[in-house]
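agent: user wants the full assembly modeled, not chains individually. Plan: 1) parse entity lines 2) check alphabet per entity 3) run joint structure prediction 4) return tokens. Steps 1-2 passed, three entities, 1169 residues total. Proceeding.
--- entities ---
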Amino acid sequence: MTRHLFRALLPLAFLAGACAPAPPGGARLAATSEQYFGDVTPPHDDTFTYNNGTEPETFDPGLAVGQPDGRVARTIFEGLTVPDPQTLEPRPGQAYRWEMSADGLSYVFHLRPGLVWSNGSPLSARDFQWSWLRVLRPATAARYAGLLYAIENAEAYNKGTLADSNRVGVHAVDDSTLVVRLHAPTAYFLFLTQFYTYLPVPRWVVERYGDRWTRPEHIVSNGPFLLDFWRQQNRFEFVKNPRYWNAGAVRLDRIVAYSVEELNTSTNLYKAGVFDWNPSGYIPSQFIPYLRHYKDYRHGDYQGVYFYSINVTRKPFDNVWVRRALTYAVDREAIANDLLKGSREPWGNFTPTGYPGYDHPPGITYDPEKARECLRRAGYPDGSGFPRISILFNTSEDHRRIAEAIQAMWRDVLHIEVELSNQEWGSYLQATTALQYDVARRSWIGDYLDPNTFLGCLISGDGNNRTGWSNPRYDALLRQASVEVRPEKRMALLREAEALLLDESPIIPIYHYSTNELVKPYVRGLYRTALDTHPLTGVWIDRDWRRHEAPLAGTATERP
Amino acid sequence: MDLSPRPADPAPALGGGRPQSLWSDAWRRLRRNRAAAAAAMILITISLVSIAAPWLPRLADPTTQNLALGATPPTAAHWFGTDELGRDTLARVIHGGRISLLVGLIATIVSLIIGVSYGAISGYAGGKLDEFLMRVVDILYSLPYIFLVILLLVFFSRSLIMLFVALGLVQWLTMARIVRGQVLSIKHQNFVEAARALGAGDRAIIFRHIVPNTLGPVIVYTTLTVPAVILQEAFLSFLGLGVQPPNASWGTLVSDGARVLALFPWLVIFPGIALSLTLLCFNFLGDGLRDALDPQDRSDVA
Amino acid sequence: MDTVNFVTRRLLMMIPTLWVIATLTFFMMRLAPGGPFLAERDIPVAAKEQLMRKYGLDLPLGRQYLRFLGNTVRFDFGPSYKFPQRQVSEIIREAFPVSAELGAWALLLAILLGVPIGVIAALRQNTPVDYASMAAALIGVSVPNFVLGPVLVLGFSLTVFLFPPALWQGWQSRVLPVLTLSAAYIAYIARLTRAGMLEVLRQDFIRTAMAKGLPDRMVVFKHALKLGILPVVSFLGPAAARIVTGSIVIETIFAIPGLGRHLVNGAFNRDYTLVLGVVLFYAVFLMVLNLVVDVAYTRLDPRVELK
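--- prediction returned ---
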């Protein structure tokens, strides 16, 4: 058939050749080097083109949820602090300095003098106060309102039990001073102030246009770039904001962010030289072993964990020994190293690596003997009498392959029958939220650099728990940790909580996410970071990159 | 129908009076058509291999994995290579055939049952009812049918049965038109009048006398519907709405394989050959059957 | 019956049809598990209630349905649930021209290549030319477009940089998606034309005329062609519907901002308003197109009368 196919394609090939006198505008020709994946000709102007991925549902900073949403919001807005492009530590942004009280309960932010919105109106501390309260106002229905709960009375106001917004701990005492009171010392609060939920929005535009205020013809912003063009399912174009306080440091004139969802298509466009950056999550995992030897491929840890959650409200999963049996029977090494070709790290903990000051409890490891022993203690020696169970996952080739692998592992180690249930996104979410499943594929990505962003999910009744698991001791440990001021003691409490969680096994950790991205060698100032956050303010195009290549090989360093 | 003649229009009725010689004539003509005969042989072979898959000696289990092996090109041990879970592609292709052919056949039967009954009733009743029923078909013809199929599969369970029904629903319209046209031209022929004179009821006349005499075009169209359904199932697999894993139809295998075309070409080439060859043979056979059963009718080439 | 009458009647019949489609889609969506405001990360209960109230989803289903019908009559589908800053009508207005352009090019190419191939095959019936083109046509119908697309991309934009591998900017980016989408239709139209031509050529008056000699031959051939491609004309209605299906695949593979992807993603996301809007829009579009094809058919074939 290949020959027939070839013959059938011949006329097409001829046609294609005949009507292609010039190279296409998007794809820059030639200059392909063996060391790099595809075309490495820099653009002729200071335009940076990348794939932003799935179409953002919204890029209203207060309402944004997903990573693509956040990337857009952060390009056009700026918070009190900005993340360092390499370490992500909070650096001065709209606030040029701040003070924390000795008890860690209150912060005073001082805004830069002369800040303006992109239309020229002055930007004051009141804008921040209004924007944060807007996120918390129940009518706004912000999904990420919970990230502001560190602030005093924020939770009560958001949940409607407190009506008076004046009692929420955020106050603009004058145009340039914002005072924030927390309900408990929160080690990562400063870090939160650069997160998109905390970004300021222009009150008069939001009030005038409602849901439609973020459209290019209405939007007013305060970040390094302005939204110039937007076409749904196609692309965003951003231009430099001349009124940005640090406009002198912005070196790009234009950013083009495409919304390409298919991983293959995205990688092809990178190869053809249309994209300068193919961010993490948009490379098919099968490609990774083949990309590894290219110099423009970057790989590293990412604060996310892929796990299976167990519905403990169903039999036989109410039995802790059953859950332990399932978790010990998963060969994480084989999944991460063989199936996913090392594009992910095998992982036996719930919290990922890289949290300053946090020491993980020992993780779960593959142990078929122990798994069988657990199953025996649960009352199902050698799997006999064990009901048929099913693994739920949403449609995706990777999820399916992993589920197929785990199905085989449980069958081979525990001799139990497992079926797979593949549902599309909407039904999958419904099933996991309503606890209508046995075992379900899940994943969690950290919002900030603290174990709490993970462990908090499994508190009894939390909306993200979705296992039905409830443990008073676990809840107590997390509550204690949330008011503990001493960092070491706090981390010890969290560690104890995680150890308890792993022992109880309502979840089965499988792998640790990694970032896998492709960046053209002429792109400078774009670093790999632990949260896969990439401030674009300092990015620039080095048209003379070949001359700088040798010293810059490996980890890129900034050059003036 | 609003317009006549139309390409989907049936051929003039087959002579109801002498079925015996008609079928033997047709059989002779079909055997002389070498392309159609070869296609039929290949289809029979593919079907037999698919049916026998679980009992084929030395054929690997399609679900047995070898993660450490991963995707390998064809070797002596794995003639068609292995996929990323280290499963034998040959076994997956053969077992995939079971599902694709099953989906093709059952969905076609669903469309046959609906289409033949609908068309026969419409044609036999005639008059206002006929006009109304055919107007409904006209309207349904212009619907974005595949959207409804997608919605049906997205919103409700993705069981095999749902797949059969959804795909069958798309295909019955043409069948109804063909049968109705046939019936119209048969119902006033002598043998029908004779049956009526002998006191046969409408039901008996439709299903015992009329439907059997529309068989020719129905067989031809059925042969052409099966590949259309198989292709539709492949399209749904591409959207992730095909059969549930670890089962895999040819559609699933091909759409997965197409995504890793540059890396593991054997994952698309072998299931692709199986799929395309089957579709090709059904089409050849359909063409041959049309020529054999009704050398006059060349208008419909679906 | 004259054309105006015929067209009016068909247009009137669209109303109950659309009502049935709207009702079916509406209830199918509401019966489906999940809802537009579920997400991987939980939404606070209060926030969800707010959203439900905002979109009237807290009303009894019957009231929601009546409200939806009322809005539909006014061609107002409201904002998309998933992309609240955009109206459904706006999304359709932006995305449909893209899908339409893709489909139109593909259909045009299919006619321009398919008809001549079919005519040549018919004129050379039972010669190697005929067999070869018909075998190629069958293969064209037998290769799924989600295989053909990546094959073309691999060949013409990754191995040789001739065309961009995706996107919809500039004419170069149109080439591969249009080719991929049209392949099956080239094949199909070639087969239809061949069959139609053969039938006409077999008729006695044509045979006699053709035998009479050269001067008349061209005239006769033109006449034969006009009748011979009738099946192609009536295929254009259903073809448009199938091109819509095909374009879902093409739009996904080539990242084209068309309407097909909106429908599929909308269904997955339970974006009720978007799905209803797109389904109804396509239904109207296809019904009107079929009507146009039917009328055109009578213009080509005087034997046919509108009923």
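agent: reporting back. The domain at 23-54+85-293 of chain B is CATH 1.10.3720.10 (MetI-like fold). Chain B touches chain A at residues 63-65, 67-68, 70-71, 84-85, 154-155, 158, 240-241, 244-246, 256, 259-260, 263-264, 269, 272-273, 276-277 (CB under 8 Å).
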